[in-house]
Amino acid sequence: MSTLHTVNKSPFEKTSLTTCLGHLSAGAAVLLLEDGVYAALTQTSVEGQVKGALDSVKVYALGPDLQARGLSEERVIPGISVVDYAGFVDLAAEHDKVQAWL
Amino acid sequence: MPIEVEGKTFETDEEGYLANINDWEPGVATVMSKEDDLELTDEHWDIINYLREYYEEYQIAPAVRVLTKAVGKKFGKDKGNSKYLYGLFPYGPAKQACRYAGLPKPTGCV
Amino acid sequence: MSETIKNFLYLNRRAPYGTIYAWESLEVVLIGAAFDQDVSLAFLDDGVFQLTKGQDTAAVGMKNFSPTYAALGDYEVKKVYIEKESLEERGLSLDDLQHLTWEDEDDDYAEKDSIHLVTRAEMAAIMDGADVVFSF
Prior knowledge:
The complex is a heterotrimer of chains A (102), B (110) and C (136). Chain A is an alpha/beta fold and 102 residues long. Chain A has a single domain, classed as 3-Layer(aba) Sandwich (Hypothetical Protein Ychn, Chain: A), CATH 3.40.1260. Chain A has 4 helices and 5 strands, in the order βαβαβαβαβ. Chain A has helices spanning 16-21, 47-54, 63-68, 85-94, and strands spanning 3-7, 29-32, 58-62, 81-83, 97-101. Chain A is globular and about 35 Å long. The two termini of chain A are 21 Å apart. The mean pLDDT of chain B is 91. Chain B is mainly alpha-helical and 110 residues long. In chain B, strand 1 and strand 2 form a beta hairpin. In chain B, 49% of the residues lie in helices and 5% in strands. Chain B has one domain: Orthogonal Bundle (Arc Repressor Mutant, subunit A), CATH 1.10.10. Chain C is built from 3 helices and 7 strands; from the N terminus they run E-H-E-E-H-E-E-E-H-E. In chain C, strand 1, helix 1 and strand 2 form a beta-alpha-beta unit. Chain C is α/β, with parallel strands linked by helices. Chain C has a single domain (7-135), classed as DsrEFH-like (Hypothetical Protein Ychn, Chain: A). Chain C has a 5-stranded parallel β-sheet with strand order 6-3-2-1-7. Chains in contact: A-C, B-C. Chains A and C meet through helix 3 of A and loops of C.
């Protein structure tokens, strides 16, 4: 069963990201969106956690939410793929289900 | 109540402010002022154009106090007072000038 | 005016767009600034994200209110405190944030910096010194 996990809360304010990363199974993917995209930045206090996850799962960040927040793609951790809304739809279709971490 | 400008229809809210700021064209101000029996002069247009520039830059309509100060700086100290602005726009710069300029009602203006 | 001028501090701790707090705070500040009070703004925790440069909300279909912060100087808001530790935890520096200024009428309209980078300890003292604290 492959699951797309979505995280839309800031990792500095909520534990959603940490809990999500602690509950991933093989074949899972994580999509960061809305305030969740802050977790995609380099040099933050959660960078190590996100890089650790990249060893075993794919991590994506939603481009329009990065742009809205003034975060350029150069600031995103290498290995995270930036996708647009169409890419979001593709990811949802490619996985068996979507689990949202609110 | 929608307003008609040269055959085109513009949607407004219940207080007569333009529903979509991007729809605005100078004819909107002319038609609105006619309904108020006001003839727009260059001095009126200075304020209307300034309000549009302010919104373009800051994405808000300025408070009356902010507008007054800015007008004084841009158009001369003698114009930077509420007497001058109310002389031009008897219903008030916020309620009248912002409306003619197609802006929403200024934040904090009740 | 015979009323005592109070010192109001607005605490901004939320990121923009994900929730309505940031915009609500800005609106309240703009309304409050019309009443001749001494207003300061503090940005800490995720609040520092409100001031990042280059915000473009076209693709998410929301109002981009980041240009509005630059109007704060017109509203006599001259003190904007940014917490250093909050920036660092988020991989940011002052260079990533908008440059906010106010014009000093008594000094030939000279542009002066509104933003002050402060440590957590200094922020605590700023909070302690405020008459009223509004939290967003």
